Q: What sequence folds into this?
């Protein structure tokens, strides 16, 4: 099968990831932070390695909390920092993992429209209110591959002392990121491990800035301060109740090392560029992708055909894509694709030139 | 028997310190209850290497919470800050 649904999850992982998971299951990885013996140390080191590697990707200190995924991370940040009395600036490009926690807080919302498929940051100032507490925004769209102008967002959030909560699920591992020059005291950057970081499912986390101190979503064992009735105040322990997914994070750490390896982005981008170039030659398709380079994710629609029908034809040709709404309801309303949905094609490092040519050939022949 | 025990504020600090002092003979132990009521970790080694360990931590700019002498003689154990 030709797998072009990497935006959902990278189904094929590097061997180094599988090896790391296997080692963590067979070579003595105990419960991290729960004991001083060598196997507990092995497990703790696996988590520490994952934190450090993700921090290298962001070019920030290793202030990384590990969670079950970007959804948990966004819930910790949004529910922990935002209340019903607050106002939040977000965008129409958001995934439900941002929108639903925001709706649950009861906060007032303003949504940035799009400019070339990315959140239109020129509108930020016009949305500012006295009670604006945060900007909660995607770093890269999970549907149309656009990348948000983070530098402008950082400047705006810092100028008005706002929290900045970022959904980085589709950005880390898709585009090089360097926040070392940014003021990140009030930043919460949430990431998924199983998508473009090539880790196992059930892994993710968030970077927390110096001034970020929200209440935890869950309580339980922490390995320290056992007689305290509440979670310890120590970060990131306070957000990591229960035994960590050591096997998963051992794999995630290896996945991030893979992303950090020489030539990773060049190879991944070259294959996607060929797909995009080929799609743009198909006149009977509408292409949903920014003019400037975005991520390795593009959506298409064949005129007169729903995205589901198109995906079904591709599936019959052994090509996996993702039709429908991609959990991004406001984006589809904004783009006018609520009736048809969009058919998303997302490549990975492991997608080959041959697979792209075959996909383009199948698309070309659809009546 | 005399040992040096070094306490820290969190477990990342313990492991950071272990990285630079393991070669000197330090190892991870459960944090002794006399130091803090907790189920955290600490580093321990022979008392003779105390000065070398502390200067290593200072050289590397690694934080620690306290340095203790752990002694056990004739069945009597003692933990005191040094």
A:
């Amino acid at each position: 099968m030709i797998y072009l649904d990497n935006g959902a999850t990278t189904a094929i992982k590097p061997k180094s990831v599988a090896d790391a998971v296997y080692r963590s299951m067979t070579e003595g990885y105990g419960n991290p932070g729960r004991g001083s013996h060598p196997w507990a140390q092995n497990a703790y080191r696996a988590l520490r390695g994952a934190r450090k590697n993700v921090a290298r990707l962001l070019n920030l200190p290793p202030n990384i909390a590990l969670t079950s995924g970007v959804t948990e991370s966004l819930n910790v940040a949004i529910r922990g920092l935002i209340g019903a009395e607050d106002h939040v600036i977000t965008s129409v490009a958001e995934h439900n993992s941002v929108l639903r926690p925001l709706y649950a807080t009861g906060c007032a919302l303003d949504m940035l429209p799009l400019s070339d498929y990315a959140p239109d940051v020129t509108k930020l100032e016009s949305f500012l209110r006295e009670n604006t507490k945060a900007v909660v925004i995607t770093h890269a769209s999970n549907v149309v591959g656009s990348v948000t102008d983070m530098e402008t967002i950082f400047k705006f959030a810092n100028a008005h002392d706002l929290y900045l909560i970022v959904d980085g699920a589709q950005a880390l591992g898709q585009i090089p990121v360097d926040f070392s020059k940014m003021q990140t005291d009030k930043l919460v950057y949430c990431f998924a491990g199983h998508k473009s970081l090539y880790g196992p499912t059930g892994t993710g986390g968030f970077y927390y800035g110096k001034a970020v101190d929200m209440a935890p979503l869950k309580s339980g064992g922490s390995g320290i301060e056992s007689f305290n009735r509440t979670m310890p105040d120590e970060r990131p322990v306070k957000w990591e109740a229960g035994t960590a997914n050591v096997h998963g994070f051992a794999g995630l750490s290896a996945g991030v090392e893979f992303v950090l390896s020489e030539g990773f982005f060049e190879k991944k981008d070259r294959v996607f560029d060929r797909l995009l170039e080929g799609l743009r030659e198909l006149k009977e398709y509408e292409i949903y992708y920014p003019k400037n380079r975005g991520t390795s994710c593009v959506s298409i629609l064949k005129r007169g055909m729903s995205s589901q029908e198109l995906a079904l034809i591709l599936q019959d040709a052994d090509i996996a894509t993702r039709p429908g709404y991609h959990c991004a309801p406001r984006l589809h309303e904004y783009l006018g694709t609520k009736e048809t949905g969009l058919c998303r094609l997302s490549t990975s490092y492991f997608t080959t030139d041959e697979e792209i040519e075959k996909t383009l050939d199948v698309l070309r022949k659809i009546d | 028997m005399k040992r040096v025990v070094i306490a820290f504020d969190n477990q990342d600090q313990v492991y950071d310190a272990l990285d630079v002092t393991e070669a000197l003979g330090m190892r991870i132990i459960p944090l002794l209850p006399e130091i803090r009521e907790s189920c955290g970790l600490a580093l321990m080694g022979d008392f003779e290497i105390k000065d070398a360990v502390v200067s290593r931590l200072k050289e590397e700019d690694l934080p620690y919470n306290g340095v203790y002498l752990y002694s056990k003689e004739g069945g009597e154990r003692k933990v005191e800050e040094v």
About this structure: The CA atoms of residues 126 and 182 of chain A lie 23 Å apart. The radius of gyration of chain A is 21 Å. The mean pLDDT of chain A is 97.
